[in-house]
Amino acid sequence: MLHEQTPACGPARNALIAGADFVVWDGLVPANRHAGVFRIRMRHSLKRGHVIDGLADSVDILLRRGEEPLRTGSIDTVDRSSWFTIFLNSTATAVVACCGGRRPTTMKSADPPESSAQLPR
User: Fold this and answer.
1) Strand locations in the chain, DSSP E?
2) Is the pTM of this model over 0.90?
3) What does the alpha-carbon distance between residue 84 and residue 58 come to, in Å, rounded to a whole number?
4) What is the dihedral sign for C-alpha 83, 10, 14, 97?
5) Predicted local distance difference test score (pLDDT) of residue 111
């Protein structure tokens, strides 16, 4: 079902072939509501300098789908380094859009925390 709807579909498909975990939730949400939420996520991720593959394409697809009820799902790669969100039709028989990619990494300080030793009075 993951074809070339967005640039994230190929990597998501490869993750599933490699044994990634996935879930599809039961609830139905109108496509345009998803579009609004994910448009905000896109703005926030761009401000942080994090690119989510297929996100802009997914938002466009979801806007075109209007009030159509969709299911959502999630794919986590085996090593948890990447994630994907998938949008499926109401019967979960076709993927409408997909976005995701590598999880952002955080830099941890190599310096130990400052000591709380008391200074002489």
Assistant:
1) 21-24, 29-30, 69-76, 82-88, 95-102
2) no
3) 12
4) positive
5) 41
**Phi then psi for 117, rounded to 5 degrees?**
-60, 145
CB 87 within 8 A of CB 72: yes
How many C-beta atoms lie closer than 10 Å to residue 119's C-beta? 4
pLDDT at 106: 56
> What letter represents residue 94's amino acid?
A
Q: Evaluate whether 2 touches 95 at the Cβ level (below 8 Å).
A: yes
d(Cα 56, Cα 59) in Å, to the nearest integer? 5
Q: Are 82 and 103 in contact (CB under 8 A)?
A: yes
Joined tokens for residue 119: 């200074």
**Length of the chain in terms of residues written:** 121
Longest dimension (CA), the chain: 73
> Model confidence at 67, in pLDDT bands (50, 70, 90)?
very high
Query: Long-range contacts made by residues 43-49, C-beta under 8 angstroms, separation at least 24?
Result: 48/104
